[in-house]
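Q: Got a minute? One more chain.
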Amino acid sequence: MLTYQIEAKDHLRRVDSFLRNLLPTAQFSYLKKLINAGHLSVNGAPAEAAQTLRHDDRVTLKESSKTAAFLARTAPELDILFEDSWIVCFNKAPGLAVHRTEDPEEANLVDIAESFLQRRDGLARLRPVNRLDKGTSGAIILAKSAVAAGMFGKMVHNEGLGKLYLAMVEGKLAKQGEIDAPLDGKESQTRYLRLFQGGGRSLVAVYPMTGRMHQIRQHFAMIGNPILGDKRYGGRAIPGFTGHALHSFTTRLIHPATEEALEIPAPLPDPLFRLLCRLTALKEETLLRALDEIPASEVLPLAALAG
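A: Always. Here it is, folded:
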């Protein structure tokens, strides 16, 4: 048996995501077979694909020559959070553009992902379903076909995605609040819940109720609490850190093809996790526990919301 102890970088990761990154070149069908056959267990019990892993969990995988051949010798180039025959969801690194930019030499997620899936599956083209700014890290969904892009695009337009972000902003904030301010002439609302405050900074869980361009970044700048590292909207630079301190942490949706309720968590990238530990002066275990206790948007208490 192969045994793994879950580290901070995999805290709140789905089981199928952990297995995918463990065996990055294996076919999706093979990973599904391993889980359904009970070859993967968490803390001694058979694992389920959507099960969420936590720090210090013990994961065991039945060893075979085929599994051993797929084992990654180094960390995979891309962090896959969820994959099926319709979509693949990546945990985008901060500072990585989604699309090609004016600089032909600049790396971008779509090109890297297409190259990887071309080598693995012969799949040639991916189409982004949702937006994510270059400086923001976290979950982004790419469709594997034009049909999937149409289905998921329609779902996002009609129903939207349930999104939870984490942000480190400048200044003090109320325990929770709502920012209701139009952007580009359109109604825009962002709710937040403060998780930590100190040293002139606040760590917040952010719930965008609408999906405007740069909504979270603009809204916090408008109330005098710009996101750290977001120089475009007045945030101070973070020495040695790429991007800004904003992470797309959890994505919820109803899969338009399977009608399955999906929850896709995106573990914090190590540089951001280290940054948050340093800026909050929290121990790793304390920060991980706080992340585990963040409420979903649909259960966020509204009675004390400050406008």
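A: The chain has a mean pLDDT of 91.
Q: Perfect, thanks.
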